Amino acid sequence: MWASASRLRRVRRIFGIALAVLLIGGVIAVMLIGGENQGGTATKTVRGVIGSEKAEFFEDPDVVKALAAKGFTVRTETSGSWAMDRLPLKEYDFAFPSSSEPAVEIEAKAHLQGAQTAKPFYSPLVVVARADAAKVVADNGLAKLTGRNTGTLLMGPYLKAAGEDRTWQQLQGSAAHAELTGTVFIKATDPTSSNSGALFLAATSHVANNGTVVSDDAGIERTAPLLRKLISVQGSLAPSTDGPFRAFISGAGDPLILVYESQVASMLLQKHDPGDMVVLYPDTTVNTEHTFVPLGEKARELGALLATDPTLRALAVRHGFRPRDGLAEFTKATEPHSAYLNQKLTGIRQVNTPTVKILMTLAQRAKG
Q: What is the pLDDT of residues 270-281, one digit of tens each?
């Protein structure tokens, strides 16, 4: 009897130890699974450097959730697109400049020629103006209003006025608006580091070069003096469009400001009050194709995911971007705001950019 009781106690002890091991293993398994699925099914954290115009997109909780559902946690920091190649790229899993031109420089710096880049979305450059300023430039032949809150900037006449150092006071109808003083100019960004500033020079140099891409030293010499006027009159140059646009919507800033259409569309789609804003589309422009450059294996699939996943495409539209081959998506989403946006880019001429070397030479000459 005592032997049976002893054996029974040993069996219970062994059973208890085994049960404890199973319970501990189960807790560990739950912790591991929970860690992998916290916030979705994210299992891979990637770090990238992006243009500031995409910061709100990546910070959007719905975007974070959609990326987690596909296995990604994305950490970002911002930089001017043309300054990214000067960063320690080995510290990042991807770079996401605002166009393909700086992407080429990033690939070269990272020794990744032929990398599987992706272009998930794009955005044209636009000039935002107060209603009074827009009316004055339109009445003087520098723009054409197609509605109360939208129109076209006529690049030829505008550049002629800039070349002549024309002032607001010289424009008919400006006397009634005390804020319209000094030289007429478009507030842009630093063309040596910011994508919007560089591509603005690409478009203006095309017009100034008799409607052709600047491709040689003669073209540089022909256009550099005018580009210098466009930049030098601005004073200090912002590193990105974010600051000038925020100043504009707060009621401060210059009368004419170069920004991305995505910034305007995002503000409208999020139902922020645009005030008396008028959106002018330059009749000659360069679209900014946001180009995803994977710098390592961890982020290789992310660019394609941003381009093809329906949820992420819809969220990109919500932030004002035009998905690649997604005109119908953009038009449908922005229909309530068509009074401000040229949804189909009607009457806008898309031109090619100079080579990276020539464009950066133009930018450096423009800054003096």
A: 999 998 999 999
